[in-house]
Amino acid sequence: MFFSCIEGFSSVKCFLSLYRFQACVYFASVFQAMSCGIHYLASVFMAVTPNFVCGFPGNVSSVLFHNSSASSIEDIWTLWTSTENYIVVQLENGEIWELDQCSRSKREVSLDLTYEYKGNKSVFPCSDGFLYDDTKWKSTVVTQWDLVCDREWLAKLIQPMFMLGVLIGAVIFGDIADRLGRQRVIWFTSAGQFVFGIAVAFTFHYYSFVIVRFLLAMVSSGYLVVAFVYVTEFVGIKARTWASMHVHAFFAMGIMIVALVGFLVRTWWVYQIFLSIATLPFVLCCWMLPETPFWLLSEERYEDAQKVIDTMARWNKVSTPCKVSELCSVQRDDLASDRTGDDETSSAKKHNILDLFCNWQIARRTITVWLIWFTGSLGYYVFSLSSVSLGGNEYLNLFLIGAVELPCYIIACVAMDRLGRRNTLIPFLLLSALICVLIMFIPQVTNMAGKFSIGVAFGLIYLYTAELYPTIVRSLAVGSGSMMCRVGSVVAPFCVYLRSVWIFMPLLLVGIMALLSGILTIMLPETLGKPLTNTLVEATEMGRNKKSCSEKTPPAHSGTALEKIEMFGQERVRTDK
């Protein structure tokens, strides 16, 4: 299948020297991951709440704020320093009003315009709307629908509802990809990101905005989950680490694009349109992407798999392409004669999340993997919430938050290829736990180190999960793991609220979870340099010695065939060159 690169090359060189076909498929697929990063972080500026005060009934003649006076409220915003402040305005009819954020007071005696007033006042609700500071943002969803004061909870609901859509989409589309194929899901979710992304900009009601964003979250999450599986199945063993990890790098680039567009465009619906346009190039060409031969073989569609392999051979200029019929003849015979047990029928039946708990080995693996996903997401967002409070330019801060992820993935890739997936994951999880303790003593120094270390573990788990499970449930495994990841991202803000109990309570919880995850990871098998498994039998055997495998389980011919296909490219390179 021409997946592997020339033996002896380093992983970096191998990644850069992917065959032409795999390279086109890879970069086309990961380009769309930028859109996922964009939509995940779009609400950072879209739902920002600027300074505001109650509106007033009439035309203003003069404005007073402490010792400063002006002719309009717009001139006062630069002096606004606290939500506890209020503005005094005098109307053309002589009335004097004190404007707070969620109420307004009319002075009974309006002789002199002074800031301090000890007389009687009549308090009124903000029935004339609100006045917003448009210095930074001309319009946000908060200003458009007045999501402040007693409606503030609606603004706070925007991101949790999006993350709920991400959670549901990860499971639904992961399962659909295992049933209907990776290609169809990539087509649908790519088009969905563009359509729903543009539709968000033209919603003129809060509830329709939330619903469309919920659907956008589902397709964005669905694409990201399936894209990881898709590129993993198309890229060979030696390049798999760098190829899959750099999907995260494109996601981080999406975060940086949000910062750039947010700096240039200050109207929320125009901002949303510009962000969604990034999806358009891939939508126009995604229909050309093929189905993965791994999935076709798992569905016994040998002729279709052969067509894909022949196409790869023509693109890569390989004169003698691999013949699936020769490599899979043993598999086809065994599947026809031995479909009497549960494991043998696994490739013929429809799979669901219960297959991730089909036996004790797989169930223990699933629980551990889910815990790592949850811990990685929880730690990532808890550290990030501290990182964004750096002061200074918020656009630059967000840009740096995305940029700091790039070196973390490079280090993770080098360590994963040199030390292995498990041997990299364990120390970085334990390091995150240690940093959560050290941050109590030197918070300024260790906060970014904590984000860096948890980022390595968080990025690694995507590839590790895809390699731990067989083809028939791989998308489902990654999707369910992503679901636990979203649970962690939803829990993270509530975890931060525990700072009112003890300022270091959120970090203590992250440290405990990271320590537990690091210990449990010791029991997971290493997947470095091993071909992807195709059946639950092979996945169960992973990590056992050959003796125990031969005694307890039958030979897995399908995995052997797939291994031959995956390594065929390496041998073909030697003979052709």
From TrEMBL:
One of its GO terms (cellular component) is membrane. The keyword Nucleotide-binding does not apply. Its main location: membrane. One of its GO terms (molecular function) is transmembrane transporter activity. It is found in: Membrane. Residues 78-529 form the Major facilitator superfamily (MFS) profile domain. The keyword Ion transport applies. Keywords: Glycoprotein, Ion transport, Membrane, Transmembrane, Transmembrane helix, Transport. It is a multi-pass membrane protein. GO terms for biological process: monoatomic ion transport. PANTHER family: SOLUTE CARRIER FAMILY 22 MEMBER (PTHR24064). Belongs to the major facilitator (TC 2.A.1) superfamily. Organic cation transporter (TC 2.A.1.19) family. This is Solute carrier family 22 member 16. It comes from Geospiza parvula.
